[in-house]
Every structure is written in C-alpha cells, then in structure tokens.
Task: structure prediction
Amino acid sequence: MTDTTASAAQSSVVASNAAAFEVRPSANPLPAIQRDAALADLKFGTQFTDHMARMQWRKDEGWGDRRVEAYGPLQLDPAAAVLHYAQEIFEGLKAFKWADGSVHLFRPEANAERFNRSAHRLALPQLPVEDFVGSLEALIAADVAWVPGVEESSLYLRPFMFASEAFLGVRPAHVIDYLLIASPVGPYFPGGVKPVSIWVAQGFHRAGPGGTGDAKCGGNYAASLLPQQQAAEHGCQQVLFLDAKNDRYLEELGGMNVFVVRRDGTIETPRLTGTILEGITRSSVIQQLEDDGRKVIEKDITLDEVRAGVEDGDIAEVFACGTAAVVTPVGRLASPTFDVQINGGEAGQVTMGIRQRLTDIQYGRDEDTYGWMRRVA
Ligand code: PLP
Ligand code: COI
Result:
C-alpha cells in the first residue's frame, strides 16, 4: 500500500502541470457583490465557483484536452457508462486562506495517490499526480477570489472522473472525463463544531472483503444513503458501519473515520483492512498524536467494547475525522438496544486539542514541520 505520509513529505517537489490547462474565462462570473454575500453565508457544498477544470482520457490517446472553463451543466449521452454501471471515483480536499492572504492546499499529493488507488480498483485510467495537482492549481488561479477567509472556512475541492463513453456492454469505458469543481465551505455539520450523534447501521454494511470499501467511489456512498436516512430518523447526524463479515467490529462512518480515546489517554482507531477508506485526515491525526507522545493503536475494535467502555468510563471520548468533518466530537452513540452519552455529551479535551493542532497547520497559525501545505496562490 502506498505510504501517503512519506509522499506528502515530498509535497514541495511534486511538479504541477497547471500551465498545460488552457484557460477560457467565464463570460458570466458572479458579480463581486453577490460572491462576497455568498462567502459571508457559508454552508457545505451548496455554492460553486465560476469555473471548473477538466480533461479527457481516450484509450488510444491518453489524457488530453486540459482546460479551465465556465462552471456549468455537462452534456452526457444517455448511454454514458457511468449512468448504468457507476464507473466513477472522486476525491475531496481543501484550500485554506492564511492571514497574509496566501492560499495553501493540504496534502494534495496524498489525494492524488488515493485517487489513483481508487482508479485502479474501478478499472479507470491512472492520472499523473502532476495533472491532478495542476488542475487544482489552474482552477484556484482562476477562482482565487472565491477562497473564503472567515474562521472555519475553506475552499472545498472535488476532483472526480467517470466513464463517459456511450455503450451498453459491461466493460471498462474507453472514454473517461475528469472534472474538478470547487465550493467555498463552512463547517460540514450545520451546528458548527458541536458533538454529533451516531446511529449504528442495522442490517446494512458499507463494504465487504474484496469489495470497494477502500476506494472513494460514488457507489459506496449510494449504498450508505438508506442507513444514513435511518440514522436521521433516530435523531443522528451520521451512521456507523460495522464490518460485514462479523457484524461486530467498528469500520467507519458514512463519510469519516472514527477514533476512541481511553481514559488513560491511549487512542484507538480501526485498522485498515481493505474495507475502510484510508483517510488523509486519519493518517495526519495519527502522526500528530504520536509526535505529541500519545500512544495510537490501529486495531480491531468491537462495538460491544465501545459501548461497555463508554458506560464504565474507560472510553472518555470518541471523535470522527475527515476532510469535510475535520475533527468532530461524537457525543452520543445509539442503536435499537442502547443509547449512550459520551463524555456527558460534551466535546472532549483530546478531541478539541487534536482539532486545534491540525487546523493550526492548515490555517498557517503553526509551523508546517510536516511539509503538508502546498502554496498555490
Ligand atoms: N471515510 C469515508 C467514507 C469518507 O468519505 C471520508 C472522507 O473523505 C473519510 C473516511 C475521511 O477521509 P479524508 O480524511 O481523506 O477526507
Ligand atoms: C470528504 O470529507 O471530503 C468527503 O468526501 C466526505 C463527505 C461526507 C463530504
């Protein structure tokens, strides 16, 4: 498996292909007054910038047609393979505005590498890291005015690729479109940084051994929507999936990884078994916690031990983490058979400490000793 930590340490040496993207400026960018109004009232993923980046892959030609153009609807043949067989993958990462006005991406090379691991699993073509990073740089250059500067805000970037070839046979498509869109965002959970409630999925699993659990493909999220809906019906913001083989071990939430903090300060998170997404936030948090002298154990964790640990106080905190969620405290864990409060339903010290530690680097408040931030504007 690729070591995303090691690759991120080389962030400053990975070249970018940004200059290869032909820029066709939008004829109708949002007037500055409306853009600034949008940037002053941020939600998650509801507003998009003026441009998008794109390129296309053809089996006999490879990647080409790199461009940045006006954001807008796509023209897609009804027989496009993605609409039938879901040959699609995506990524999610953020650009942060620092106090001096400069703009920095967090670990884009790690996302580029995970994109290629997902591409491999979905029989999609590999995308050179320089093209992935180049598309990010080219789009941010065009839409730099859209990077928000208020607290807890960032520009969320969504690269994705899908099978656009029109045919109905089941085989990897010979024409693939890559697109990158951007959305200025505030906190993922509407209440801001407050403890969230989690519902344990009943009778549904996100991924099975040998499936696509460790790929970031749309199909995984489609399968999570019904359990997520059931979580909402029980007053919970996120769903927790258990492993498909034993229905016992914690895997992850619908869109984030999960950690537990023991009373003695030890931190545990489900080990990577091929059915969990290898979160870039997860690996960053593990590294920072270890550098701070904490013991972090990647292991199999049963739901039963978490429930018992929360009840007898051996588990002091639970938190979720991901690009969108950053580090989010979990205040409640519920299922048809139990409903427990964690840390009295309050955000814990370890959770908020690691959130601070991570965001201090992301927002340039602390020195980036890891080489995680890539300046793009
Ligand atoms: N797990 C799932 C299912 C996710 O969708 C995400 C979000 O991308 C994560 C974990 C966390 O990954 P990352 O920290 O790379 O955003
Ligand atoms: C992300 O964190 O980037 C994701 O893709 C997860 C989703 C919940 C928005």
